[in-house]
Amino acid sequence: MITLLKSPQREVKIGDSGFIVIGERINPTRRKKLADALIKGDMEQVKADAIEQVQAGAHVLDVNVGAGGIDEAATMDMAVRAVMSVTDVPLCIDSAKPDALEAGLKACAGKALVNSVNADPEKLKAVLPLVKKYNAAVIGLAYDEKGISENPEVRMTAVKTIVDAAAALGIGREDLVIDCLAFSLGTNHRSAAICLETMRQVKTQYDLNMVLGVSNVSFGVPNRSDINTVFLSQCMANGLTCGIINPLDTSMMKAFMATELVLGRDKHSRNWNKYYRRGLALAEAAKA
Amino acid sequence: MITLLKSPQREVKIGDSGFIVIGERINPTRRKKLADALIKGDMEQVKADAIEQVQAGAHVLDVNVGAGGIDEAATMDMAVRAVMSVTDVPLCIDSAKPDALEAGLKACAGKALVNSVNADPEKLKAVLPLVKKYNAAVIGLAYDEKGISENPEVRMTAVKTIVDAAAALGIGREDLVIDCLAFSLGTNHRSAAICLETMRQVKTQYDLNMVLGVSNVSFGVPNRSDINTVFLSQCMANGLTCGIINPLDTSMMKAFMATELVLGRDKHSRNWNKYYRRGLALAEAAKA
Fold first, then answer.
1. If I label A122, which of A18, A244, B160, B223 is the partner at 20 to 30 A Cα–Cα?
2. What is the tens place of the pLDDT at every residue in B1-27?
3. What tens digit of pLDDT does each residue of B223-238 get?
4. Number of Cβ within a 10 Å radius of residue B147
């Protein structure tokens, strides 16, 4: 199953040969400086984040401008235009508010990914028509109006609801990317296993593309990067085809490339060796 | 399936709740100082390696004394006694020579693991009677006299030969630990994937315990520890229950513990937190 995203200059195929990195940095949550700039309508930090993430290897950029007291629709419009002015990758339009999603979709040239919908009927009704209208793809979160279940079967019921609702509007399965939900191991030591089991079922029953905010799993747990590395790797073996991650976090980038190598997907170890040489070159440049 | 190993003081259950670390350091390959000491019959380095590995978390110690020009049987006898004099963990008696295996098994109190047999009829005839005679368990390597195949199906034929030959001598399946063979990704970019596929089949068809020399996979490849981490993690998801690894390599130790956490096997994250606190304490001690 291939989910096609487009910018005017590039196509990105989720589910094709390589793992797709959706850069998560353009998001004011826990980034006060970015939040302040967004509220003032200053897009310099957004542009810098966009450039830096693409240079670090992001294939798609998530754009979220949800800060307290902001005019989210107007700011989303500005942020999408700002990102497009400095990079040429497809975008992931990220908001809890339908009007901000629509503002982002309207501003975005190409085919975007919408972040996100869930199985709550109200949410489906608000978001899926936008996905259809703007010919976008959409992230479907595996929960519904009753909340988030710790039972993979219940999460699968939510996935089915989303698949059916999308089909009813003529949105193809290739335009759905499922998020099976990862929560902190600090609150439930089985939270990663629940997510992995749900992913196995999505893969077997629907063969849909899947995305995840990987690093949530280690929130509040010591030695986060070790856990993130291993969890990302396990997710990829279970069918994860893209991740919302920080491309500046080299341990994450190494984790997905090492996993592609170990799973036999990196022919002649080309990407791995290229990444290694790039690391050496950067280290040399830093010394000089 | 549980493979029980014993020292006079301890039992180790492979395939029970936790991943079992077989310390690989007592081996003169690429350790000239140890080789020289062994040739002189000096067991101080062997003792130091034994203590250090157990302190670092090894559950079982591999003992290999195969250096050029050595009386391997006599040295194995001395080395096994030396290790038992300073530690109380079960042993893995490791030699290509049946007489050295027998010397080690004779010297070893408890129930040892023999490293190793393969599906070559000559090898089976030489090693399995010793396993039976000394009531040991044995590592079965997934190849035969025709060599090592890159086809998982052919590796499975070797596994079947070993399972059948053991059964014919009355050695139970619980006393077989299969090594599906990991070779360098540097020579074949699919070598890890071939191993993982073979492991899946061993798990499904026989549910046997499995062991692996994990770090082979990264031999000659840049950034070895990243690859080892991810490969060990994938192997565990495919049924690896013990590994022949260097317990002093903290990236390996973190990899198996993070994997147990992510797979939901570390209840209330107890081991992970314990390891983290131990690391902090060691860092504090190093500063003081």
1. A244
2. 999 999 999 999 999 989 999 999 999
3. 899 999 999 999 999 9
4. 8
